[in-house]
Design a protein that fits this description.
- It is a single chain.
- The protein has a 5-stranded antiparallel sheet. A 4-stranded antiparallel sheet has the order 11-12-13-14, sandwiched between helices.
- It contains 12 helices and 14 strands.
- Helix 11 runs antiparallel to helix 12.
- It is an alpha+beta fold.
- The protein folds into 3 domains: 46 residues, Uridine Diphospho-n-acetylenolpyruvylglucosamine Reductase, domain 2 (2-Layer Sandwich); 112 residues, Uridine Diphospho-n-acetylenolpyruvylglucosamine Reductase, domain 3 (2-Layer Sandwich); 103 residues, CO dehydrogenase flavoprotein, C-terminal domain (Enolase-like, domain 1), CATH 3.30.390.50.
- The structure holds flavin-adenine dinucleotide.
- Flavin-adenine dinucleotide binds next to strand 2, helix 2, helix 7 and strand 10.
Amino acid sequence: MIPAAFDYLAPTSVEDALAALAEHGDDAKIIAGGQSLLPVLRMRLNAPEVLIDLGKIDSLRGIRDDGDAIVIGAMTPHSVVGSDPLVAEHAALISKAVEHLADAQIRHRGTFGGALAHADPAGDLGGPAVALGAQFVIQGAGGTRTVGADDFFVDLFETAIGDDEILTEVRIPKHTGWGARHEKFVRIVHQWPIVAVAATVRVDGGTIAEARIGMANMGSTPVRARAVEEALAGQPATEDAVRAAAERADEGTNPPSDLNGDADYRRHLSRVLTRRAVLAAAGA
Ligand SMILES: Cc1cc2nc3c(=O)[nH]c(=O)nc-3n(C[C@H](O)[C@H](O)[C@H](O)COP(=O)(O)OP(=O)(O)OC[C@H]3O[C@@H](n4cnc5c(N)ncnc54)[C@H](O)[C@@H]3O)c2cc1C
């Protein structure tokens, strides 16, 4: 279907975009890469009167080193994030997840911030974001605030970004030297995961010193596998130890049932994928 008619604005600064949001209120919608929004408009599940395109705001694009964090501009395309050496060195889990995200065309148009703002619990970036403790920088008329990953994802397709606010950048604390692995289970290649597990692990002398694990499609938001993280700390990086800890992957989760698999199947997948991801990240 063709979307309902809308007016199109392309501001060149965040301030102008915020002013347009304030002027048009509920009638307006932000568009980034359009890879999730345009299908919604074409199905007429939403019909905003005004689209505010962030594509001409240069300050929202780019990746920089900021001491203890890597900062990724919201409008940075997935393809740029996926091939960036700073991200690969300090937040390898992000690079690995982007490799698995959709196909080359969608990675070219779709943006890092757009995918996280969309907050699809099946999205590939939510797991790495919660695992790495991402910080979301959100700008509104009153200024800028920073929200941690645990508070950013509120519910299905719902984040802490207010209707009159814009996600400007995401700060990823550096995890330099940590092993990383993204395990994604799909029925059709280039599609959203039935379950995905993002694991990053710091190994010290054959012992797992720290592990951080985020999962997609195991609830209405991306979830941390905290029980596994706790069980792994101080354990040897061996198949037996990791297998035992991974059995706890679904603790505290609430996976959906749908045509791709029921909740029990997803629980099983979370345990298997966690074992594989942690073993690979630990180099075991
Ligand atoms: C066929 C197909 C397959 C896909 N497969 C996968 C997959 O395997 N894994 C995966 O993770 N994703 C997948 N995607 C989604 C892809 O990652 C999109 O790029 C992403 O979900 C949305 O990013 P976008 O920049 O296109 O945002 P848009 O579609 O432009 O926007 C998405 C939503 O976020 C809001 N928004 C965007 N940017 C901001 C901002 N800076 N501040 C506030 N609100 C904002 C918009 O208003 C809109 O509600 C797929 C998409 C398609 C079409």
